[in-house]
């Protein structure tokens, strides 16, 4: 899985700080493919579109009445969806800045929203303990399916080609196999704040509030590796794979960005890493194709763009 030349350097040189949000930023997502755009959402109820290269804000999307907790970008970058305290999912047109649709049905705040591969279906996970699947091509306003197995808030979702992965405060990651109609459950015993699969869909990273990130075999539920050292006990934070899936990276509650070697789970230098945000790092995401860039979002109100010096 990991390239034999060893892990790529984690981008740690600050390129730009995106600082227009008023209050904590909960999520920051890259546009798909080679497009160099970032969307961020925060407590100030706005979604903002940035050019991370120049560090400039391109557009602000304001319709939410409550904080924005989750964002997902369509495969062609023409639309995105957002969710949060409103109990509705907002579907947006990127260019016009208008909402195309508002999807109601959840009974509590919506922590996670995620498109499928071609953005024909949207999944949303809520404080009400359900995951709802919405057919965006249909005029029918009812969900096509409701997943009700979780016993507490659903904080994380990934929609794969044939499966859905969910993480809940009840301490479980659930894998719904859509082809076989089967459910597999992995129990962690602590609230799950993020689930991120590898590109081959064989493994996934589970971030939990016992300050562990575990690499799991998706089909058997066997733990393959355990990454620790970072501070994570009370906030929803996210870990992800570094470029080429040779590393795991995660921001923590002290405002530091940790990186580990995927294979031996050893923390990479600097260890411990320096504090780069004033408050908890709520989200981290590596650029989808560029080896030398990642973004962090923080409760300090900023999104930071990090690069390795070689990538300009």
UniProtKB/TrEMBL annotation:
It comes from the Eukaryota. Keywords: Cytoplasm, Repeat, WD repeat. WD repeats lie at residues 18-60, 61-102, 103-144, 294-312. One of its GO terms (biological process) is mRNA splicing, via spliceosome. It is found in: Cytoplasm. PANTHER family: WD REPEAT DOMAIN-CONTAINING PROTEIN 83, WD40 REPEAT PROTEIN. This is Nuclear mRNA splicing protein. It comes from Lentinus tigrinus ALCF2SS1-6.
